[in-house]
Each structure stands twice: as C-alpha cells, then as structure tokens.
Amino acid sequence: MNHFLIQLLCIFLVTSLFSTNASADVKPLHSFTPHAVASLKWGQGMGQVALSKAPANNFGPQSFVVGNGAVYLLDSANKRIVVIHMTNMTFSSIPLPSDKVDDFCMVDRNRFYLLFADEMKLVLYLQAGQRMGRVVKTLPIRSEVTPIGLNCLSKDKVIVETTDGLNSAGGNFVKRDSASQWTLRFNSKSHKSQVLSVKSRRGSVEFVKLIGVDQKNNRYLSVEELVDEGLTTEKVFRALRKYTPSGEWVAEVELPESLYAYTLKELVVAPSGDVYQLIPLPKGLEVVKWRMSRGGFKSFRGHSRYQQTLFSYPQSQPEDFEPSEAPAEENASFEKRGSTKGWGNKVTRQEIIRAARKYVRHKFYVNDANLTRRHGEEMGGKVVITPFSTPGNKIGVPYKWGGNDNLRGFQRGLNYGKKAGDKCTAKHRSCRRQYSGSSGAVGIDCSGLISQVWGLSHKYSTRNLPSISTQLRSMNDLQAGDIINKRGHVRLFSHKVASGRFFVYEASSKDWKVSGRFYRLSQLKRDRYKPYRYKRISGIPGTDGPVPPENRPVLPVRLHIFGDLSIAEKQSSAYTAKVVYSDGTTREVTQQVRWTVKKSQYAYFIGSRLYAQSVNQDQSVHVNASYTEKDRSLTQRALVTIRNQDKPKPVAPAASVTVRFWLNSPDQTQFSTHDRVIFYYQINSPRHHRLYFTLFNVSPAGKWAILLNNEAIEAGQLYSLPKTRQDWRPGQLFRRDRRLRLEAGREHFKAIVTSAPIAWTRLAAEKADRLPQFLGTAELTVEVN
Questions:
Q1: Torsion angle in degrees (nearest 10) through CA of 327, 330, 333, 338
Q2: Overall fold of domain 556-643
C-alpha cells in the first residue's frame, strides 16, 4: 500500500513539474515581419536628415509621427519637419521657427505642438503650405522637473513627459511586481480601467513601455529581459509585443538596437496596427514598418541582407563619435593606486545630484567676446571653437575639451572674456593631435563633471575613476550619485523610473552642453558601460528615486484619480487617488481624499466607492476628489457615465415610400438559367424627389453581392437593368456585367431606399447596432431551374 502511494506521489510531482514548465514557457502565436519604408542619408538636402555630432554621442531625428498616409520626422537641426508620403514615396518639408525644438506631436494635418525644453514652453504651431507657419499660442510649462517629450491625446489635451517619468504614459501607470511579472494599468477606449500583466519568457523583465494602441484597442509594448544575471554574462533581449484588448499575448519579435545615434522616440504605432521604427546607421536613417505575420516567434538577424543591415550596429564604435575626453587624460594617473590623496571629503547623494542639476540649469549671458568665428580661433596654443554662434542668454554649462571648471570659475572666466566652451576635439581637422584643453576657454567635459560633483580636488579621467570607486554587481544596484563608466565617457546616475529607464546627467548633448536624458538597459549594456560607486559617498543605503531640488520644500503639486469611467446602473466601482510631489515622488492618498459627486440623484460615494442609482437613460456625473496637505489644496475631476441597462433595441422606422421591383414582369417568379432577364424598379414618394436605391442579392450558394450601390433615382420614374447601350456605364453594376445572370436554385433580392448614400461595406464591418434611416424596403425571391 505504501509503495502504491509513493508511486502516485511521484507521478503527481512529475506531472506538476511538466505543467509548470509548460506554463512558464508561454509563447506567442505570431510574429512581426520588417518592411522597408524609406532610407534617408545624413545631410541637409531633400530626402535627407541632419546628424549632429557630440561627445560620445550622435543625435539624429529625436521624434516622429505617423498619420495621414505619411511619416513626419522631426529634423530640428535643419529647422524643419521632413514628410515622407508613403503613397507615392515622395518627400516634402515643413519649416520650423527654430532649431531648438526638442519634440513635437501632431494635432491635425496643419497644426503641431512644439516643445522647447530649455525655455519651458509649448508652442501651438500652424503650418501654411510650404512657407513658414505662425505661432498660434504659447503655453508655459510650470513644473519642478525638466520636460523631455510630448504626446497629443486630443485637440485640446497634451501630455508632457518629464524627467521623473510620471507623465510618460499619459495617465497609464506601470508597476514591477517581481522579476518575472510587471503590471500595466490604463483606461481603455470603453473608459474602463484595465490591467495588463506582462510576464517574462527568457529572464527577468527590466523594462516595459506602452508604445501605443491601434484602432482595435490592441496594445503594443517594448519589453526588455535580462538573461543570465551576472557581472560578465548579462545579456539583454529587446522585443516588440502585441496584446489583445482582453490581455492575451499574441505576437512578439526581436527589435534591432542601433547605438549609432540617440533617438528619444523611436517607435510609433499606426491606427492600422503597423509599428514604425527609426534605426540610425552609419550610412543613414532607416524607417522600418513591422507588420504582424502568421507563425511563431522569429529572429530576423540573418534572413536577408536588409534584415542583417537592421541588426548591423549593436555596439558603438569610437571612431564614429566625437571623443569625450582627451586621450592624454586617459593615460594620466594623478595618484598612485591605493592612495587617497586628491580625494574629496565625504559627499551625500543629495549633494551630488543637486550639484549636477546646477550645471544643467545654470543661466548665463554670452557676448561677442565669449564667441569664436565659425572655424575657430587660436587660444592658448590650441584652436578653440565655441558651441554657440550668437550672443544672448544661455542655459546649461557648455562642453569644453579637457574642461574642469566649477560654476564660479566658469562665470568668472566669461566675465574675463574667455570663450564659452570648446568643441574642437582631437578628432577635428583643426585640432588633430592636440590632447589638452585651452586656457582661453571655460567649460567642462564628462569626467570633469563627475570630478566636480563628487568634490574631488583633482580631475580624474574615465580610466582613473574606477580606482576611487567600487564596481557594482548589476545596473539594478545603482543609486543616486553613482556613475556609469567606460573608457572614454562617463555618466552620472540620478534615478530609475517605473518603466525601467535610467535617467543620467552627462556632458554631452546635440548642443554640446551638460544635460540629462534617459537610457534603456539594453543601450547601456551593449555600449559596454559598467556601474561604479564612489568610496566616499555617504547617505542612507538603498536610497533611490529623484532627489528633491536644493533649498526647496517638497510640496504636493498634482492629484491623479483612477477608476472606471463607465458604470452600469445599480453597480459600484472603487476609486483610488495618488498625489505627485515636487520632487517627483508619489504617494497613495485614497483614504485621505474627500470624494463627492455632482448630480447626486444618480450616484453617491461611501468612502472611495461610487454607487450608481437606477436611471431611465444614460446619465453623466462628475466625480470630484479634493486633497489638502501643507496648506495646499488639490482637486481633480472625472466625467463618469451611468449606463442604463434596459435600452430598447433600435428598430428601423416605418417606410415612408413605396418600393416596387420585378424581373421581366411583375408576376413572374419562375426562371431558367438561359433566360434573358431584365430588372425593373420604381419608387413612389409624395415628399421626396431625389432618392438613392441599393439592390442586394444572395445567390443560391449564399454569396452576398451588391448589384446597385446608392443609385441616384427620381421618384415616379421607371428604371430598368441592364440599361440601353448608350446610357449604360460599367461602374453602375457591381458584377461588371451588362445582363443579370441567374444561378440554379433560389435567388433572393432585397432593395433599400435611403435619402443619402450609405457606406454599406463599412456598416457591415462595424456591425453597427443603430440602423440608418431607411425610407423604404422591398424583397423578392425567385426560383431558377
């Protein structure tokens, strides 16, 4: 007996093991296939886009939009939007008012919202033909954090993405439950709050971002998984996934990753469900369309020459970029290994991030004495070329080859007439083999920025920084104030947002200055960066998230509420609330919020749960949430629909016209397949003069066809089909035939008369529950031998 029980237990364990493995290795049913849309060379001509060189980075088009049968590329360096017309593969351009546009989104064919991040403003721009458009209105951005992106939700609603990552999904929130599962919460087209579960397939999920939604409410995600966790064996797999409205994972494909140029927005979903991607390569910019294909998961790394091209630049090559620091600095060693001479005092994480922010947001004035000519000037034994070409107010400390100036020294140098920055690196034709900075310019480079914010008494190069740091096991161990370093360039880590992106500060941008930007894990790993922590950093272990600005209290700035926007009568729904603070952090305050509802006869609150009353028809109510903290009152409102569940089904109105039609004669219902058939029809109406006649036919085989589609006729006139030879036009017959040919069996005809043309095929595809206004109908069935 015991032996029998042991056998049953073993069988149960083996069965459970196999079922667990099968469920863990869930595979999508379909994949995506890449299709070439356009190839644009780097340049300034028509059909080209600009490539901006910068220290350790290149910058191509930062954003694009797909709509109206075209692809719109933000070519801000050339002060234009490049338009690729996909119907005939031609190019045109829309001029922009400035080259400082950081992102854009399209309201309609002629109106765009433009983002100017440095100036903290939005501009609604109206384009008129091929000429320069005009600014309709300017909207200031009042935020404690820097804006970096835009998303047009409607004509009157624009979401601004900021460096805290909270607005990037337009009200959709992402949460990491575990290494193998993430949860996305969002409002669907039916206004119901829905949850999407994203599960791992190969390793731990490290990045999840909602790219977009198509017209059928399918969702497309960019997902990155970390395979083989470890310091030397970490690999990142990047994929495009498709989920149905019910949350089913149906398609996946590996996405190519090119590190040749930085792009803020590289993936866009079209209403049709096609996903467009920008892939910058040394020869130019590839615009690719991913379309779902039948069959399981596929890897397109080696299927064709074109597909090999898409995956041809997985790692950056130093010769393709401007150097970030002088090679002489890399080889220099200021201190002996193990020595602490030259180290600064202990510094907190908050002090490091606040110091970096000062370099990003530093405002100063540049006059003619601080600028050089286009090809540079000889200064201190070296040619200096300033990043700026015109005088005026500037934001952000400029890059200087070999620079290591603090803010006070930078401002003092400008006052003394020194040049504002120097972008003439050893790779520039005017500065070849010049590996030291000029004393006639002020600014900072990548390792100089780290040396300053860490409070070091000497400048440490990217080669020497690891000697005063501890290498971390994984990128996930990074905390504010740590660095991401490789030979030749270094970045200062600030925080990691909910989607999994890393926000860093670095002395590199398309404008050659200190700036902040996001990177994904795949970009950092494939570019061979390693995480390090300064040995004299102090602070609470495990501190993470954005650091509040210096000398500014952390205050509540925004209130968000979440819940269903449509509730059936006599049902209830729970709502939640989160408050966003000035430092970018969030906190759930559902229980502290005061919930009220306008038009309380239709609904009421008990706590945070809304209860709907019985209604005779659909009613809209306003859900109001108010929250007070630190003498600040925040309010938020949402429009909720209470649905009536006893709606009568719509019926077609009674016919107001008389419809008569027959074959050959009014009383004939028997035919043979050899008979010559003439179709007659007539409509009588006392109130209508011009009407539209549509004739449907169902063959004996069940084939559905339209014989006459919205034929314009006059009441009281007798018409026949086929018409006489001189009046007949082929487009008037669905079957392209001059005579009606009957098939053996039972032929069924139905005529419908309307007051206006109707798109019948679209009406059938949408399965509309509301019938159009039919003025009259008639049916006829005949037997054919």
A1: -170
A2: Immunoglobulin-like (2.60.40)
For the beta carbon of residue 229, count every other beta carbon within 10 angstroms. 14
User: Which residues touch 6 (CB under 8 Å, ≥6 apart)?
Assistant: none
Q: Which of 29-38, 73-82, 194-203, 645-654 has the lowest mean pLDDT?
A: 645-654
Provide the 8-state DSSP code for 482. Answer: -
CA 114 – CA 103 distance, rounded (Å)? 6
Length of the chain: 785
Question: 656: which 2 tokens?
Answer: 């107001």
Q: Report pTM.
A: 0.69
User: Pick from 141, 142, 109, 106: which is nearest to 124 by CA?
Assistant: 106
For domain 26-320, give the fold: Neuraminidase (2.120.10)
How many Å apart are CA 713 and CA 751, to the nearest integer? 13
Of the listed ranges 17-26, 413-422, 609-618, the one predicted with least confidence: 17-26
Q: Is 532 helix (H, G, I), strand (E, B) or coil?
A: strand
* In the chain, where the domains are located: 26-320, 327-538, 556-643, 658-784
The values of phi and psi at residue 2, to 5°, are -65, -40
pLDDT of residue 24: 41
Which residue type is seen at 87?
T
CATH class of the structural domain 658-784: mainly beta
Same fold, 26-320 and 556-643: no
Q: Nearest to residue 419, comparing CAs of 451, 382, 446, 450?
A: 382
703: nearest Cα among 742, 729, 676, 664: 742
